[in-house]
Amino acid sequence: MKTVFSPLHNRRTATTELDGGILIAPHEKPSRAETILGRVKQEQLGEVLPPREYGLGPVLRVHTQDYVDFLRVSWADWIAEGKPGEAISAVWPGRGMRHRVPKDIDGRLGYYSFGAETSITEGTWDAVCASADVALTAQALVANGESAAFALCRPPGHHAHADLFGGYCFFNNAAISAQAFRDQGAKRVAVLDVDFHHGNGTQSIFYQRDDVMTISLHGDPDLVFPHFLGFEDETGEGPGEGFNLNLVYPPGTPFSVWLDGLETACARIAAWQPDALVIALGVDTFEDDPISFFKLRSADYLLMGERLGKLNLPTLFTMEGGYDVDAIGVNVVNVLKGFEQAR
Ligand code: OKP
Ligand code: MG
Ligand code: ZN
């Protein structure tokens, strides 16, 4: 399987994440991508390609123009106001307040985000654009006949809504890619999110549509991020009714239980017979992940990949979360190797 990677991910070097009332060094850091790339090479998974530049056209198929414009200028506007730190929102349009875009940068940061853990920094825009290019380049490989490809995206994307950043995500690479498959002629596309967290952005973007099915397995949002979406009674809306599936698990969930959920997800996908599959691949389900509560072990990721491979669909993997950097390379490449063994 080919991997698409851009060194421009290194332009995203936030130094702050608001966590527990203090600013910590972000969990979502450059060494994550470098470690995965190292393991891809060590295991000789396949060729590593740089991305092509797609511009904002495919991004604007799922994100709004005003949101994209905001992301492009946000750091410059923050700096122009003479702010001393990284750009972090401290205010949001709460219940009963107006949802209009204010002029002030503090107001715009709140309007376009749903959390304060994700700082905007110099270079964030460049990395976000490169991450989307990585996804789209890998998507094109699959659309042009490769059976699968790995988009080594950083920053991740699955929490980003059409006009909201948060959860370390800015552009929703999985959603952009799914839409690209549709725009290139695929009739049905499934997005399966195996990251520990609910793929709230992806769900939201396709919630009212019957052409892109979204499925996510994740930690119970009653207990963990993103807190306000991802419950099992969210099944889609209007024409999208029945095209969203959330599979929610409690703390301590072992692979055996998680795999039942994957089986349910795979059965749903196989019955629908999509033309393409996007896997939002996070490995923060790992037992030693610092911010998560599932108990998957490194060897389990081989079996995860094997089950995904048995779907026998043209498959794009987009990299999402995973924060135990020591294990992230092994775990990610285990999924991809297990997948290839099943084909
Ligand atoms: C992004 B992805 C840590 C709280 C972390 C944000 C989690 C974002 C996860 N105490 N909250 O889905 O891996
Ligand atoms: Mg998930
Ligand atoms: Zn995650």
What would the keywords be for this entry?
343 residues, alpha/beta, eight-stranded parallel β-sheet, two-stranded antiparallel ribbon, binds {5-[(3-aminopropyl)amino]pentyl}boronic acid, binds magnesium ion
Explain what the structure shows.
- With 343 residues, the protein is α/β, with parallel strands linked by helices.
- The chain is built from nine helices and ten strands.
- The protein has helices spanning 30-42, 65-80, 105-111, 124-143, 173-183, 200-206, 255-272, 300-309, 325-341; strands spanning 2-4, 17-19, 22-24, 48-49, 148-151, 189-193, 212-219, 244-249, 276-281, 315-319.
- It starts with a strand and ends with a helix.
- The chain binds {5-[(3-aminopropyl)amino]pentyl}boronic acid (OKP), magnesium ion and zinc ion.
Strand order of the largest sheet: 4-1-5-10-9-6-7-8
Percent in strands: 5-15%
**Tally of DSSP β-strands:** 10
The radius of gyration computed from the alpha-carbon positions, rounded to a whole number of angstroms, is 19 Å
Rounded to the nearest angstrom, the distance between the terminal CA atoms is: 11 Å
- Indicate the overall shape: globular
Number of helices: 9
- Major sheet characteristics: 8 strands, parallel
Unreliable stretches: none
Structural class based on helices, strands and sheet pairing: alpha/beta
- Return the average pLDDT rounded to an integer: 99
